[in-house]
Design a protein that fits this description.
alpha+beta; TIM Barrel; Immunoglobulin-like; Jelly Rolls; 8-stranded parallel sheet; 6-stranded antiparallel sheet; binds ligand FHN
């Protein structure tokens, strides 16, 4: 054993003996920054979504798995991973001018290939024509330009390692033998490879600001904890993401491209693709629009959530032009409007606004206008703080505010909504707001996350990190919600649910809903009456069901009570594209209920 390895082994043993150190993590920069750039780069960038000249479905970095490529074949990609146009300063500049405050880079993805020279694996950058350490170069570029650095490390999946074989999720021919002969020894992989590589990553590159683990799958809590411990011991200030497993990280985890549906009161990050893949795919031209991506950043900020957008460079290091265009578009907007994102705390109101989003900071509320508000008027019914003034953030143009019981803003004519103008509303004191839900532009939008949970005979439903219901079925109780009705009349009741994109809409789901003193909707079938056409469709599509109409004879506070009678069945796209029929569901993923005023 060479000296470097001996020191490493001693250090690791110390990590195991000490266990978890006292947490000294500094979350301030991460909360303040709100915006990061993810980079997926590896041998899959060489394959670029094709194997043997044929396009392969699915996310590009999974091509080895989806195209069922044995390791002996896959490793040949290393010869073609040239990095010939790799310019880490240009990548960092791209992130920085867009306003991103941190970068997270794939040091090892599920394929097992290390983008740095590793002493414990020969499947690393030294196999490529590139003779330097691209990770070191990227870290240095981040430091030069003042961005925080995060390392992505696939801690559970490693298709190069038989001992880390997952099987259910994984093509079993990687190792050149039948499934029955593969006898994984996960503990050995963790101790001898993963933790040793963590030590390399945490001791060779100076201060690392964020460690981004992924797909914890079947790790035990103890195993996840060792991945926490190694960071705490070697880099006590480093933040650990939620996907280390068992909520042991410093912030919570959402699914890929999963947009939270209401304001959250915890540290959370949303990670998103610009098209349908993380790793480069030459045939994926289905890019989200620059405005869509900017809206996602703003929406995340309005939920109090960080947003990390991904780029997937080509094998030579070139960033696809649509990604550059998106980052530049965000950068232009951020130049004038970044104060409405950095260090903000999300929408202070419980309302979802039809015209856009809101964030706040101290005594300031920022209103992000995606479209012209109805009659160019915004009425902030829940605002309790006295207002000093309002203006368009990018130009300083005054926005008149009147106070007739509720503050009302008159939005100037002819704003360019393609550029998402922001109203800066300055209050005379730190923002105070009511907890109630009000009607905006004829819609009362009631997030389920605000509800009171009444547990059932079989335990309790709960609210997931992203604000949707989880474990909500006939046995787990009911949800009570409230809203303010200030205009009596008839209202359509629309219920929004979401689902993972691999699942079809659940058939046969039935609910019971009571709305104030209206006759209750008993065991109503949830129909797929419509689906929102937006960036969520690729990940967690949102569907609505119109369950009927209610009448309010008087204004005032109204109570709603939601229960599930049956959750229904769905079919699911399996991991290799197979159609899995008639799975049952133990949850309806409710997001919000809308009461829509009938205006006839
Ligand atoms: O399987 C990976 C996937 O390839 C990609 O890296 C994403 C990014 O969040 N994480 C995993 C799936 O959630």
């Amino acid at each position: 054993m060479n000296l470097r390895k001996l020191v490493g082994t001693l250090l690791l043993s110390w990590v195991f003996v000490c266990g978890q150190a006292k947490q000294q993590v500094d979350m301030d920069w991460w909360r303040e920054g709100r915006f990061g750039m993810f980079i997926h780069w590896g041998l899959y960038s060489v394959a670029a979504g094709e194997w043997n000249g044929k396009p392969v479905d699915g996310i590009g970095e999974w091509i080895q798995n989806f195209a069922k490529v044995p390791n002996s074949e896959y490793e040949k990609l290393a010869d073609k991973f040239t990095l010939s146009n790799y310019d880490p300063d240009a990548w960092v500049k791209l992130a920085k001018q867009a306003g991103a405050r941190y970068i997270v880079f794939t040091t090892k993805h599920h394929e097992g290939f290390c983008l740095y020279p590793s002493d414990v694996s020969d499947f690393d950058i030294e196999r490529t024509p590139y003779k330097r350490d691209p990770l070191k170069e990227l870290v240095e570029a981040c430091r030069r330009q003042g961005l925080k650095v995060g390392f992505y490390y696939s801690h559970r999946q490693d298709w190069r390692e038989e001992d880390a074989a997952v099987m259910k999720n994984e093509y079993d021919g990687h190792y050149g033998k039948p499934r029955s002969e593969v006898k994984p020894n996960l503990d050995r992989y963790i101790k001898e490879k993963a933790l040793s590589q963590m030590k390399e990553l945490l001791t060779r590159y100076g201060k690392i600001d964020l460690l981004w683990y992924d797909t914890p799958f079947d790790l035990t809590k103890e195993q996840s904890q060792t991945f926490v411990n190694v960071v705490r011991e070697l880099q006590p200030e480093c933040i650990i993401n939620g996907r280390v497993g068992y909520n042991l990280g410093d912030y919570g985890a959402l699914g890929d491209n999963e947009m939270p549906c209401s304001r959250v009161n915890m540290d959370l990050e949303m990670v998103a693709t610009m098209n349908h893949t993380w790793g480069y795919k030459k045939n994926d031209h289905d890019w989200k629009s620059p405005k869509d991506i900017l809206c996602s950043l703003i929406e995340c900020a309005s939920r109090g959530v960080n947003y990390m957008i991904n780029i997937g460079p080509k094998e030579d290091g070139t960033v696809p032009q649509p990604s550059v265009d998106i980052m530049n578009f965000i950068g232009n907007w951020m130049q004038a409007n970044s104060e409405s994102v950095y260090g903000t705390s999300g929408n202070p109101f419980n309302d979802n606004f039809p015209w856009g989003y809101a964030t706040h900071k101290d005594n300031i509320i920022y209103l992000h206008l995606l479209r012209e508000p109805l009659n160019r008027r915004i009425i902030l019914k829940g605002l309790l703080s006295p207002v000093e003034k309002a203006e368009i953030l990018s130009s300083g143009m005054a926005v008149p505010v009147s106070d007739k019981g509720h503050y009302a803003l008159t939005i100037p004519a002819e704003l360019d909504y393609g550029q998402i103008p922001v109203v800066k509303l300055v209050c005379k004191a730190p923002v105070r707001f009511s907890e109630d839900n009000y009607m905006n532009e004829n819609i009362v939008s009631i997030p389920v996350a605000n509800g009171k949970i009444i547990p059932g005979k079989e335990g309790s439903l709960s609210i997931a990190e992203g604000g949707n219901t989880q474990n909500f079925h006939a046995g787990t109780g009911k949800l009570q919600l409230k809203c303010e009705i200030d205009e009596p009349g008839a209202y359509k009741v629309r219920i929004f649910t979401s689902r993972h994109w691999r699942r079809t809409f659940a058939e046969g789901a039935k609910i019971t809903l009571k709305v104030d003193d209206n006759p209750s909707f008993n065991s109503v079938l949830m129909q797929k009456d419509g689906e929102l056409a937006n960036v969520r469709q690729n990940s967690y599509p949102e569907t609505w069901s119109d369950v009927g109409t209610v009448n309010f004879r008087q204004k005032g506070t109204k109570e709603l009570e939601l229960a599930v009678n049956s959750t229904g069945t769905f079919s699911r796209l399996g991991f290799f594209g197979e159609d899995i029929q008639n799975e049952s569901e133990n949850n309806i993923r409710f997001m919000r209920i809308e009461l829509i005023k009938e205006t006839r």
